[in-house]
Amino acid sequence: MNNAEILRYLRTSSKVDDERLLLLIEQCCDEINNTVTPKTLHRIFDCMVDDDGLTIGDLTFKSRRLADNLKGCKKVCVFGATLGTECDRLLRTYSVSDIAKSMVFQACLASKIEEVCDSLEDKLKAQGFALRQRYSPGYFDLDITENKKIFELLELTKRIGLTLTDTCQMVPTKSVTAFIGIEND
Predict the structure, then answer these.
(1) pTM (2 decimals)?
(2) DSSP state of 185
(3) What pLDDT digit, counting tens, does each position of 173-183 carry?
(4) CA dist., res. 71 & res. 67, Å (int)
(5) Taking a C-beta distance cutoff of 8 angstroms, is the pair 67, 51 a contact?
(6) Is residue 131 exposed (0-12), middle (13-18) or buried (19+ Cβ within 10 Å)?
(7) Contacts of 45 by beta carbon, 8 Å cutoff, 6+ apart
């Protein structure tokens, strides 16, 4: 996990020298690395992009911004990633017993899920794919309800235990779904 990113999530200067805070970050990172088991699932699909959105098979994702991001792509990687339920349990525990640790733990988990997503992108790049910036439901004009289609497309609940609430929030909370445009076929 990236200390500078964790400090940014905490809205603190990356040049902070508070030994107690830095030790707490180190302890939280160690606990996360020893207890959390990330899971990811991705698939690459042929796609059509027009001015209004993205179409994969018979599913259409309406978003002009997503379409702009994917313009010219004929393939797209769709993925889900989660840190699992243990992180939610630990967050609940610390939010009751140690609010400072809870805040640091939350920032460390945010950094960890980004690390997991970046690792997936690195694997795709190692396979020779040229990638666009990842784009998730909830960004700009891509409604969060579009997560329902991603869950259907990838069977995320069945395959990696990721679920959606009635309001399309993901459980476990430290989870991501996204599209990554592939520039080369």
Answers:
(1) 0.91
(2) -
(3) 999 999 999 99
(4) 6
(5) yes
(6) middle
(7) 56, 57, 75, 76, 77, 78, 153
